[in-house]
Amino acid sequence: MLPIHRRDFLRGGAALAPLVIAGRAFAAPQAGSRLLVVFLRGAYDATSIIVPSSSDFYYQSRPTIALAKPGSADPKAALALDADWSLHPALKDSILPLWQQRQIAFVPFAGTDDLSRSHFETQDTIELGQPVGGSRNYGSGFLARLAQMLGKDDRPIAFTDQLPLCFRGDPAPVPNLALANVGKPIDQRQMAMIESMYGKKGQLAQSVAAGFHVRETVFKTLDEEMKAAGRGAVSSKGFELSARRIGTLMRDQFNLAFVDVGGWDTHVNQGNATGYLADRIGELGRGLAGFVDAIGPNAWRSTTIVVVSEFGRTFRENGDKGTDHGHGSIYWVMGGGVSGGRMAGAQVALSAATLNQARDLPVLTDYRALIGGLVARQYGLSADRMAAVFPRAQPADLRLV
Known about the structure:
- The protein has 401 residues and is of the alpha/beta class.
- 32% of the residues lie in helices and 14% in strands.
- The chain has ten helices and 13 strands.
- Strands 3, 7, 8, 9, 10, 11, 12 and 13 form an eight-stranded mixed beta sheet that branches. Strands 4-6-5 form a three-stranded antiparallel beta sheet, with no helix packed on it.
- The two termini are 28 Å apart.
């Protein structure tokens, strides 16, 4: 296994204090807590996945892309979650069982107060975790700040081509690795040449060395895993394969991770029960279910996954049978210790009058409050430490962990 104790120099500031939210105190976190943030880049159409199926307004607003109501004669109808919400049928075998086991909750009307509807600006807003409206510090992401609060106990990694904004600003090197590109061991001659370019000292040299070390360890771990799998080898689909690999690595080696999944900007012909979006939804569900399988029941009990996107999409379909950039979204919270099987957070009956600017889901749960409340409870972080992770954001206690 890969031991990473990169924060001994921060030992003096690493102590965890009891958590107090809304006057309620909670004990220290369970040992071995893990957090994975899954970012759906491109703004996914949340109400095609978690459907407000009791709303007539939903069906009026989406004459061609709405999913059939649960219990209808359509064999591809939405799957009822409760009296008001249903699930896309592409998630029947992957996510629905987690709902039935109460290991996943959905938070509707979630998002940011960024109204730009710009992919890049709002993605930056989420990754930075800083208040909207002030000057931005692009050298300080919220997962980097969280890693510093966890001190010597953190073992972070970004499963991305480049280090994402959310991990920038950590004084200790955070490795990043796109798992789809891990196919063979590193050529030692090339490694030596690259290391010589950066010298032996300094943070950049440390980052390069740490990156090579992580990649070599990851290759060995995954190679052993795949050989053991034999004929039960995983799918070749991008995220499905990567998610299983992430589960394998987080089981024993990393406890704070980030991965992004693209392909969600569906302006044209997004489909309903079948089509482009349904295919992406199916891959996402199978990937997350594969992660659960790969990480194993023991580690899953202390693992939380948060699935977010930069913003939602228009509630009404457009003239091209797709949806455009919106505002509020629906976030997912998964984990073996999650209090799931429910829709969490503030909600409102959907109508033309309750939409944001008459076009989008409103935001009733701020993403910083949601993630802040989860992290505070999971890791037992005090209010002052959470204020450093999400400045000027009050953690929301949705009782999800």
